[in-house]
Amino acid sequence: MSKHPPQQESHSNIQLSYSSAFKSIVKREFSLAWQKPAQIIQPVVFFLIVVTLFPLGISPSPKTLQLIGPGVIWIAALLSIMLSVEGLFRQDFHEGHIEAWLLSTVPMPLIIIAKLLSAWVISCGMLIVFSPLLAMLMNIAPEVIPALMLSLLIGTPILLFIGAIGNALTVSLNQGGVLLSLIVLPLYIPVLIFATAMLEAASVNMSYVGQMSVLLSLLLLSFVMAPLAIGAALKNTVN
Amino acid sequence: MWKWLHPYAKAEVAYQLCYKLLPYFSWLSVITLAVGSVWGLAFAPADYQQGDSFRIIYFHVPTAILSMGAYTSMAICALIGMVWQIRNAELAVYAIAPVGAVYTFLALVTGAIWGKPMWGAWWVWDARLTSELILLFLYLGVIALYNAFEDRRTGARAASILAIVGVINVPIIHYSVEWWNTLHQGATITKFAKPSISTDMLWPLLLTIAGFMFVLAALTCLRLANQIILNDARRPWVKALVERELSSVSMSKASK
Amino acid sequence: MQFNSLSDFIAMGDYGAYVWSSVAIVFGALAWIVVDSVMLKSKTLKAIKQEQERAEKIRQAKQQNSV
Predict the structure, then answer these.
(1) pTM of the entire structure?
(2) Does C9 score more than 80 pLDDT?
């Protein structure tokens, strides 16, 4: 008994404190991902394969690769996230978790943020870790690699948040995949533009603080807005 | 003002209002479009640089302006529908979307046709062209999402959420593309210098802009009225209406 | 009138193909969306009628079952 802080005692026992709800969701996400490591590995493999296609399809000459490299890596990351985001809320929808979230005393945006943050670590973490390898395949100068990783670090959560909106909107549909890409890809364009511009500046040894701050502001905006939109979308699919 | 507006939230009243407004919008659109087009095509002076090819402006600019205007009004309807739970506003989202998509398509096509003689290429990755293309994708997303749901209400709400998300993104997309464009293209495209357009050129343009606006309004009325009765299909007033309309159709056929 | 003759008007100072094709496409597309919107009404009425008949049948079937 003495383990519980006194404030919680006054509430009913079922009521979770916000931080413990957050932690339990994150824990659950990670244990689920641990049980199905395909969820972690497949996006990375997809990422590698897509990047491999470009030298084969365009030209393997080092100069061309250097020119298109940052853009190719970014497009591959973008597609990989779009695919991995497709299953984000599917299980929760079919197992009735969404109704439970809506009924619980914990605010919906908090639950969504917990889910998104753990999904980001699970599905995008490996992309960032593997990006230097791809940078070498695409003949990108070693000096640019930190900028590449930084751009992915800031940019991938934005892509994940936007993609999650698309997934929340289409989760109740049987074949939401193509529709998801139709909805989500146009919204990805600003991120792609600023991320590749950041890398372009880095590759000519210019300061890329400006582009990075734009990306950061997009991150903040999506962090604030996406959970609201996702909450409304999930509520709509359940009703 | 709210007291005055409130009855229009009722489906039947809104339905009747749509058909009350329709003839005004229709006639105004026919008149302004006809006068504006003929004036613009035949009577406005030719541009001293672009010759007669500039006359495409009388179709390109109105569709381009109104493609964005339609998207904004669609998103405003979506917001009203989501925030105040007004169903007619939700339905208006899907009434506007196809018309807006057609305008966007027309702005792109006329832009391409105008671009060929002026820039020497059907398509250039000009900032305005690119963001217009992305706008078309956004429209198609809204339409596709609405149609993907069995339940109309769920589809309308999902489309509303997407329209709101889209309208937050439209300025971001626009400025990012513009910035990207200046970064990549520099001076290869001479943007149309926008001098003070002479009044004999401006009047027909204003007329066609008004014309396309009235077309949009008229079509929105027509499509919204359909959405309203479709949504209220089980209600007695719609049952009565359907009986009346269908019997009058069959009677007019029989009399022929 | 800016043009001296009808053929001048059609030629549009050598830009005729561009100007008239865009006019045709614009009015073609407008006509298409107008026709589509007008036709929508009879389609909607028929769809509602069908839906109502189906609902009526289901109701009757239920009533018979309960009897």
Answers:
(1) 0.85
(2) no
Which chains neighbour B (Cβ–Cβ under 8 Å, 3 or more pairs)? A, C
Chain B from 90 to 119: CB within 8 A of any C CB: 98-99, 102, 105-106, 109-110, 113-114, 116-117
CA of C64 to nearest chain B CA: how many angstroms apart? Answer: 22
Residue A202 token pair: 């880095």
Does ipTM exceed 0.90? no
| Residue A90 reports pLDDT greater than 80 | yes
A8–chain B nearest CA distance, Å = 34
Residue of chain C whose alpha carbon sits nearest to that of B57: C19
Q: What is the pLDDT of residues B97-156, one digit of tens each?
A: 999 999 999 999 988 888 888 777 788 777 778 888 989 999 999 999 998 888 888 888
User: What is the rounded CA–CA span in Å between residue C45 and residue B111?
Assistant: 38
List chain C residues with CB under 8 Å of B228. Answer: none
Ranges assigned E (strand) in chain B: none
| Chain B residue numbers touching A185 (CB-CB < 8 A) | 137
Q: Is A210 on the interface with B (CB under 8 A)?
A: no
Query: Is the pLDDT assigned to residue A48 strictly greater than 50?
Result: yes
Mean pLDDT (chain A) is 85
B154/A182 Cβ within 8 A: no
Sign of CA dihedral B75, B156, B139, C34: negative
pLDDT digits (tens, 9 = 90+) for B10-42: 888 888 888 888 899 999 999 999 998 888 887
Residue in C14, C25, C49 nearest the CB of B242: C49
Fill in the DSSP letter of residue A24: H
Q: Are B222 and B21 in contact (CB under 8 A)?
A: no
How open is the CA angle A70-A73-A77, to the nearest 5 degrees?
135
User: What are A146's two structure tokens?
Assistant: 């930190």
Q: How far is the C-alpha of B211 from the C-alpha of B27, rounded, in Å?
A: 10
Query: To probe the interface with C, which of B53, B66, B116 has the most C CB atoms within 10 Å?
Result: B53
H-run or E-run covering A127: helix A125-137
User: pLDDT value at position A8?
Assistant: 45
Residues B216 and B103: beta-carbon distance below 8 Å: yes
How far is residue A55's CA from residue A64's CA, in Å, rounded to a whole number? 9
